[in-house]
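Lab notebook: predicted structure, single chain.

Context: the supervisor wants predicted structures on file for every construct in the current expression panel, including those that have not yet been purified. This is the next one on the list. No modifications to the sequence; it matches the entry in the shared construct table.
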Amino acid sequence: MKNSLVLLFVLFTLNAKALTIGAYNIRNFDYDERARIKTNKQELSNLLVTLNFDVLSVEEVNNTAEFEKMIDAKLPGFETAISRCGGAHGQHLGFIYNTNTVELLSFNEDLSISEPGRPGTCDSGARPLAIALFKIKATGLKYYALTAHLKSGADAASLQKRQQQYEIIKRTVIELREKSGVKEFSIAGDMNTTEYLNRGSDYKFFSKMVSDLGMTDLAATAACSAYYWGGTDDGIESPSLLDHVVVTPGLMKKQTKAEPSGHCKKVSCREVPATELGILYESVSDHCPMTANIQ
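Prediction complete. Output recorded below exactly as produced.
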């Protein structure tokens, strides 16, 4: 009888657990050649454990074999689905997911976003879209999850390319809806919305994509998701909002929003010296995980 009660409690806990999704750019895992810094895997795995996520979009996984090895060792019960292609800089992307709460039904990558208007190739241009079909075990609900890592940069050419990429994402979602009959979607990742906080063109075009799809950007009110040098050599790092978590209404069962963890949370998205951002900023990523409890 006691064992039966324990089993029922475990099953109830599994079914009652809020579904947590998010995004994290891990900065050229496991070695950043530009900065000549190895990824601090212990700090990274410690952070991932604290997030208590179910599906996490990940970007900039350069060493996919080592990444899968780390997840197997540090996050039992979790698996990865990572793209074969990584664009010009070998920055693969995809998902880490909790096999106890979700089931991966399919996974593929779409190169059409790499070089809008031209045939995409595996090792050139921007990163592909990673597209997964998940089933939530507690409810049986199926939904498509897209991980995106869009063109970086604040120059006019980069802004124009991102605008084209937003249209490709929108078209992809619409086509998947029509072909599959699946109604629920999430779009997460590093959208490189460099002009989001000052309500520039990135804000305008990204918000239009979200609105056109009838979705909600859970990061819309976040104060930041990453840090950078700020454009001046004064030793002060500036916050930026580059990473987003977008969902359809049927996937979001309660009012919620995406919040940053890591060094963004530590300093409350204030402008600070790099030394205050700590070891995660120094040896894991300039970005912070963005997560939201959606169910």
